[in-house]
Amino acid sequence: MAAGGGGPAARELFAEGLLQFLRPAVRQLDGNVRAVRESQVELREHIDSLATELCRINEDQKVALDLDPYVKKLLNARRRVVLVNNILQNAQERLRRLNHSVAKETVRRRAMLEAAGAYPGK
């Protein structure tokens, strides 16, 4: 090893340690994004149901109640929920690709270290 802080094997060990450190965080973030997406879908379904029910109530009322502004607000909220869900879906896909890249890089680095004899195999 060089006196200046380590050679290639030390850098490889550090890189692998960093990848091992990141992997659980990426997986946890992916799980959290998945849970938020599921709740967004549930919220969208509830908004749809409520909007439908408000329209039905409005039609059934003998007294003229103007529920249209509320229905429009619900539909606007639904649109925003769908937009957020699309953003989350894109983020989750990027996380999936990152997780795949981390796993692939970990395997590659471990193989390099094992080939160099600097990493004890499991």
UniProtKB/TrEMBL annotation:
Where does this polypeptide localize? Cytoplasmic vesicle, Secretory vesicle, Synaptic vesicle membrane
Q: Which GO terms describe its molecular function?
A: SNARE binding
Q: Which GO terms describe its biological process?
A: endosome to lysosome transport; intracellular protein transport; lysosome localization; lysosome organization; regulation of synaptic vesicle exocytosis; synaptic vesicle exocytosis
The principal location of this protein is membrane
**Which GO cellular component terms, listed alphabetically, does the Swiss-Prot or TrEMBL entry include?**
BLOC-1 complex; BORC complex; synaptic vesicle membrane
Keywords for this protein = Coiled coil, Cytoplasm, Cytoplasmic vesicle, Membrane, Synapse
- State whether keyword Coiled coil applies: yes
**Residues of the signal peptide:** none
Identify the InterPro entries for this entry. Answer: Snapin (IPR017246), Snapin/Pallidin/Snn1 (IPR028119)
Q: Would you identify the family this protein belongs to, as annotated? A: Belongs to the SNAPIN family.
Question: Cross-referenced PANTHER family, in alphabetical order?
Answer: SNARE-ASSOCIATED PROTEIN SNAPIN (PTHR31305:SF2)
Its function, per the record, reads: Component of the BLOC-1 complex, a complex that is required for normal biogenesis of lysosome-related organelles (LRO), such as platelet dense granules and melanosomes. In concert with the AP-3 complex, the BLOC-1 complex is required to target membrane protein cargos into vesicles assembled at cell bodies for delivery into neurites and nerve terminals. The BLOC-1 complex, in association with SNARE proteins, is also proposed to be involved in neurite extension. Plays a role in intracellular vesicle trafficking and synaptic vesicle recycling.
Protein name, as recorded: SNARE-associated protein Snapin
